[in-house]
Design a protein that fits this description.
heterodimer, A: 187 residues, mainly alpha, 2 domains, 8 helices, globular, B: 243 residues, Serine Threonine Protein Phosphatase 5, Tetratricopeptide repeat, elongated
């Protein structure tokens, strides 16, 4: 059964519409907590700001392109996403964290973990798809890159100097090659 | 067969099937679990790539907002350590601070390209009767490079007529010139999304705002968007060459 969308979905909508007042509310609620977590774990205020910004952009992306619907409260969700990001960053820098993995987050609901996990997974997957995309031939890459920009497809065809019909045909072929590439990797 | 289904799915989604082929695909879709999975995968891959490749102006605007909120909420100043400086050190740091400020204002490293290419735009307003309107006043101030004063008048005009592209453009330039860069850029990006005659002037102004900050990557990003038949195209190409 589909879960009920949480009222805090409004924060996602605020990110989508760049509603400064509500986005500022997110900062007021969460920025201090993320900052102390990062400072406590060998990071700087700049690191905390980067992580925070990245997390919010990831959430924006998931809401816009993947239809993310929040079924848990926003604050613990964002905090969890930030913490995971920072722990990953520490791993990259080969520093072991002071805080043990999420042991201070016991009061967080199951849903929040699931949603944070899904967000991380989808981001990872998008990277994988992008790497497969880079392996396509130049013409295919050009066609896909242009048609993903968000402009009207008729205009894309005009820019590329082809007919609309040809663009559709070529894009289907190129996308099919991409799906096959990705399929083979997963096998 | 499997591979054909993948291509078929792509053709279906991209609208590259005839009416009868499309109906055939849809009727098969009802029972064929494999085909259903291909279709779901296709949408998944397509939206992920779009997320990575889209030229998302909304996202760019959000990032601007986040950047300005970051400086407000993540300032290092919160660190509790206060060092007591001795007198000599105080003097040295004061002199150093003045020097650094001086360098920032003078900014010899970006003087050349920015000065050369920024060529402040001139606001021209059609003559109408003898009565002096707010618009005339704004234009006079703007052309005198009194951007702070021009901004006040333009803000009023902009509130009264937010859809007026000319006012939006000059208001945005005045905002950028007076340090309200994030707000200015938001307006310029809106113009870029629209279809007014200021579309590419707005893009050029965006590029300039980044050049001023020595952010060459962002500057190039915007310059490359200027269409061949737009007025600032030549200038943009010349600058791209130098960057």
């Amino acid at each position: 059964m589909a879960k009920k969308v949480h009222d805090d979905q409004r924060y996602l909508i605020a990110l989508l519409n760049n509603e400064v007042a509500l986005v500022n509310e997110i900062y007021k609620k969460c920025a201090g907590k993320v900052k102390s977590f990062v400072l406590f774990n060998n990071g700087s205020a700049d690191d905390a700001a980067d992580i925070f910004q990245e997390a919010l952009v990831d959430i924006y992306n998931q809401a816009k392109y993947k239809g993310l619907q929040l079924t848990c409260p926003f604050e613990p969700f964002l905090l969890l996403v930030c913490k995971r990001k920072w722990l990953n960053e520490l791993k990259k820098r080969a520093i072991s964290p002071v805080t043990k993995n999420e042991d201070d987050l016991l009061h967080i609901g199951e849903d929040t973990f699931e949603q944070a996990e899904a967000l991380a997974l989808q981001k990872e997957q998008a990277n994988l798809f992008l790497r497969a995309f880079e392996q396509l031939g130049e013409r295919c890459k050009e066609i896909i890159r242009w048609s993903m920009k968000g402009e009207a497809q008729e205009k894309v065809a005009e820019t590329l100097g082809v007919t609309y019909g040809y663009l559709r045909k070529k894009k289907s072929e190129c996308m099919a090659s991409l799906v096959k590439l990705i399929d083979r990797k997963n096998d | 067969m499997t591979e054909d289904k993948i291509l078929w799915t792509a053709q279906y989604v991209e609208g590259d099937l005839s009416d009868s082929e499309r109906l055939e695909f849809e009727s098969l879709l009802v029972h064929d679990q494999e085909l259903k999975q291909y279709l779901a995968d296709y949408y998944d891959i397509h939206s992920s790539l779009q997320m990575e490749l889209a030229n998302d102006v909304g996202r760019a605007a959000l990032v601007e907002t986040l950047r300005s909120l970051n400086t407000e909420h993540f300032e290092e100043a919160a660190s509790p350590k206060v060092l007591k400086l001795n007198h000599r050190l105080k003097w040295i740091s004061a002199v150093a601070a003045v020097l650094v400020l001086g360098m920032l204002v003078w900014a010899p490293w970006n003087d050349d390209l920015y000065q050369q290419f920024n060529g402040a735009p001139q606001m021209s307003v059609a003559e109408r009767g003898a009565e002096k309107t707010d618009l005339d006043e704004a234009a006079a101030l703007f052309n005198d490079k009194k951007y702070a004063d021009a901004k006040v008048v333009l803000a009023k005009l902009h509130v009264a007529d937010a859809r007026n592209a000319m006012i939006s453009y000059y208001y945005a330039v005045a905002l950028v010139e007076t340090g309200e860069v994030a707000r200015g850029r938001l307006l310029l990006e809106e113009l870029f999304n629209g279809q007014s005659v200021y579309k590419y002037d707005a893009v050029y102004a965006l590029a300039m705002s980044y050049l001023k900050e020595e952010n060459r990557t962002a500057c190039k990003f915007w310059l490359e968007k200027i269409s061949k038949d737009a007025a600032p195209y030549q200038k943009a190409q010349e600058l791209l060459g130098k960057l």
